[in-house]
Amino acid sequence: MTTPTAPAAEAPTWPTAKCNDDGCSADIIWARTNAGKAMPVDAVPVDNGNVLLRPWPGRDEPEAHVVNMPERFDAPRYTSHFVTCPAAASFRRPRRAVRRSV
User: Fold this and answer.
1) pLDDT band at 12 (very low <50, low <70, confident <90, very high)
2) DSSP conformational letter for 86
3) CA 28 – CA 17 distance, rounded (Å)
4) What is the C-alpha separation between 61 and 3, in angstroms, rounded?
5) Taking the C-alpha atoms of 92, 77, 5 and 39 in order, what is their torsion angle to the nearest 10 degrees?
6) Are 80 and 40 in contact (CB under 8 A)?
7) Residue 12 burial (CB < 10 Å; 0-12/13-18/19+)?
8) Is the pLDDT of residue 24 over 70?
9) CA 32, CA 25: separation in Å to the nearest integer?
10) pLDDT for 33-76, tens place per residue?
11) N or C: which terminus of the chain carries fewer CB neighbours within 10 A?
12) Which DSSP string corresponds to 16-52?
């Protein structure tokens, strides 16, 4: 995994969508992790966020980087929508069982 460098303080405007949960309907940004997985991120930056969004060349959606020490980056910080959505558990997929060889 690569560590992101500090992006510029001005963040681009990312396309937003509404959360599909009837009880939430918050504005979210769909981002991709460096592993290519979709990640919903709250659209409003927060001071205590730990997700940095950076442009992903050739895509409309940003690349999401979860960082351990976000205060070191001079950039808007966001929060995973799984942290704030009241129905986050209903969107998670069950983990696959790990096969162990005997």
Assistant:
1) low
2) T
3) 5
4) 19
5) 20
6) yes
7) exposed
8) yes
9) 21
10) 988 899 999 999 988 899 999 988 888 889 999 988 877 878 88
11) C
12) -EE-S-TTT--EEEEEE-TTS-EEEEESS--TT--EE
Give me the pLDDT at residue 25, please. 84
10 Å CB burial of residue 44 (0-12, 13-18, 19+) is middle
Computed from CA positions of residues 5, 14, 27, 75, in that sequence, does the dihedral angle turn out positive or negative? Answer: positive
Whether residue 51 contacts residue 79, with contact meaning beta carbons closer than 8 Å, is answered with yes
Residue type for position 94: P
Look at the pTM and tell me if it is higher than 0.90: no
Specify the DSSP class assigned to residue 57.
Answer: T
Please tell me the distance from the alpha carbon of residue 67 to that of residue 101, in angstroms, as a whole number. Answer: 34
**Which H or E run contains 53?**
strand 51-54
